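Exercise: predict the fold of this chain.
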Amino acid sequence: MKNIFLAFVGILSTLFLTNLYAYQPAYEIIIDAGSSGSRLHLFQSEQRNQLPEILDIFSESIKPGLSSFASNPDGARDSIKKLLDDALVQLDKNHIDPRTVKVNIMATAGMRLLSPERQLAIYASITQFIQKNYAFALGQIETIPGKMEGLYGWLDVNYLSHTFQNNTATIGSIDLGGASTQIAFATQDQTKKEDEVTIKVNQQQYTVFSKSFLSLGQDQALAAISQDAGAASCFPSGYPLPNNVSGQFELNTCRLTYIHLIQSKHVPDEILPTANQHFIAYSGAYYDLNFLGVDNTPDGVLIENRIQAVCSASWEQLQKDYPSVAAKYLAPACANDTYVLSLLFWAYSLHGDQLSVTNQINQQDIDWTLGAELYKLVTP
């Protein structure tokens, strides 16, 4: 009887310790090193049942992006110092040992545009700097593939929308950045296996089509069409362009200029059919359409009408109409909105009832880094 009692106590102790360990929060830092800036996220996670609970307990951003230090790798190192120092302050406030916290620096399209040699020089400088000055554990310090960036965005959108938690139909993700754009959605179609990832979340297996288009972020797209003969049609009337040319906005000409660019990257041929799939578009798409005053369930006709209404004004009038918008953001606003219109409704063949445009889901910011954290936790 005594042996049975001791065995029973041992089982209870094991179960207690297992549950205690499972519910102990863990902490991890992910720095999204984007083309225009870097944003640090400090995540707290708890492994509860089949789906982790993840909280973004601190975030902070700096400009410019790591890729701007291509000729000065030590500048990249110095640029993230404030982010890491401020994260240390937060850890100290919460009595968290930094030695238990892994730092990941995950760079995206801005770094993809650099040569491998320049990327490695930046990462070597950053790695040495962290090892010398901080107690953090080192995780990924690298440029992530566009396919993974798209997958992480999809994971984030669906985690925040509770589709994983409730085992409901998933939502597609469209992320428009400065240097690249990503589209990702669950599919049964396996005709483009090189662009698909299989992942298991909350005991459900998904095949996700994830495609990234480098150089088709809105900043890179704008730079490309600015070299085109039709560039003036994408800028406000009277806006000064190089070579003594002035803008003369004309929607159809501008749209064709962007469509030619999109065609040159074979976008419609590179993606799977999007019919019957609902999408959330965010990042640049949200900010561009928000400028037009478009709500979060737009269709192509509504966007087109708003572009015509806003962008028919002269550059002088636009500056009066939008006094709080800096000139460097106001000047390309009509071009960027025309690009969003072309990308979503021509290249991706979406209809209004397939699309929501927002930067938050359930009062939480959409950010692919949370999806990256989820991927780390559910992938063996």
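Check your answer against the key: The two ends are 41 Å apart (CA to CA).
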